[in-house]
């Protein structure tokens, strides 16, 4: 049985880190390690994905017009000078690689990769990727999300495969991958946030079904508190954080990741 105060702390961490390329899952695993929570527990693994839905709902509120336009429910003026628009096929192409691999290797990830040690590796390697993406000298060929090509959407989806490793960061790998594919930081960030909606709903559904037998009504309060805390914190932070990620150089996030990894490594060793 887990405590409400633990759900509140983890929900705050999720809400603050979901939109930054620093790995919200990695931060939650490290925090749970500090609180002596077993990160291999199916309940906790399901909880980690479930509360991310809270943060993702904040994205739904921010991008609701664009989301409805994807389904043709409202008309939206394109940001592209050519009149092109992002459509559902872009999203499908982007989420397909990680969706397939995530389902096929779900058990392996749970058993081998959900640990503080693997998170530290992911933080460092993901930080290196952010620096590489930021240091590239070619000018982006795609400045706004509406100009995103299907090829670029697919390449971003391939880079998203790295986020299956906790600590790499879904937003970090996709924003960096988008920049390496010729997409501007702002457009890559926008696509990343929208693409996160079906990804997180799908991941949460998989874990809920997989660990259904391990869950009970006693866990309901723990899950709901984490969800709503994550949603409220993310809602307060989402507007400024989205703009922050769109403008901030990825190298600064990389340095932060290195510092967190170094501090936690010292904690594990001593």
UniProtKB/TrEMBL annotation:
It comes from the Bacteria. Its main location: membrane. It is an enzyme of class 3 (hydrolase). Pfam families: BacA (PF02673). It is found in: Cell membrane. HAMAP family: Undec_diphosphatase. The keyword Cytoplasm does not apply. Bacitracin is thought to be involved in the inhibition of peptidoglycan synthesis by sequestering undecaprenyl diphosphate, thereby reducing the pool of lipid carrier available. This is Undecaprenyl-diphosphatase. Catalyzes the dephosphorylation of undecaprenyl diphosphate (UPP). Confers resistance to bacitracin. Coiled coil: none annotated. Its EC number is 3.6.1.27. Keywords: Antibiotic resistance, Cell membrane, Cell shape, Cell wall biogenesis/degradation, Hydrolase, Membrane, Peptidoglycan synthesis, Transmembrane, Transmembrane helix. It comes from Paenibacillus hexagrammi. GO terms for molecular function: undecaprenyl-diphosphatase activity. Belongs to the UppP family. It is a multi-pass membrane protein. The chain crosses the membrane at residues 43-64, 85-106, 112-132, 153-168, 188-209, 221-244, 250-269. It catalyses: di-trans,octa-cis-undecaprenyl diphosphate + H2O = di-trans,octa-cis-undecaprenyl phosphate + phosphate + H(+).
């Amino acid at each position: 049985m887990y405590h409400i105060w633990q759900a509140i702390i983890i929900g705050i961490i999720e809400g603050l880190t979901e939109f930054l390329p620093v790995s919200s899952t990695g931060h939650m695993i490290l925090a749970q390690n500090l609180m002596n929570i077993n990160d291999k527990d199916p309940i906790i693994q399901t909880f980690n994905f479930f509360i991310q839905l809270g943060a993702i709902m904040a994205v739904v509120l921010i991008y609701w017009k664009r989301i409805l336009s994807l389904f043709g429910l409202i008309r939206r003026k394109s940001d592209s000078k050519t009149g092109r628009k992002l459509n559902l096929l872009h999203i499908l192409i982007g989420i397909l690689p990680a969706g397939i691999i995530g389902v096929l290797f779900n058990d392996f990830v749970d058993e081998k990769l959900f640990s503080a040690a693997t998170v530290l590796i992911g933080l460092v390697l993901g930080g290196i990727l952010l620096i590489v993406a930021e240091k590239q000298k070619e000018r982006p060929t795609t400045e706004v999300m509406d100009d995103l090509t299907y090829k670029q959407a697919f390449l971003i989806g391939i880079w998203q495969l790295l986020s299956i490793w906790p600590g790499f960061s879904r937003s970090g790998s996709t924003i960096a991958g988008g920049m390496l594919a010729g997409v501007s930081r702002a457009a890559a960030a926008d696509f990343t946030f929208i693409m996160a909606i079906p990804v997180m709903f799908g991941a949460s559904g998989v874990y809920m079904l997989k660990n259904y037998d391990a869950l009970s009504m006693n866990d309901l309060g723990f899950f709901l508190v984490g969800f709503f805390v994550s949603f409220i914190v993310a809602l307060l932070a989402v507007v400024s954080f989205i703009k922050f990620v769109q403008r901030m150089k990825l190298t600064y996030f990389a340095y932060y990741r290195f510092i967190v990894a170094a501090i936690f490594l010292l904690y594990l060793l001593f």
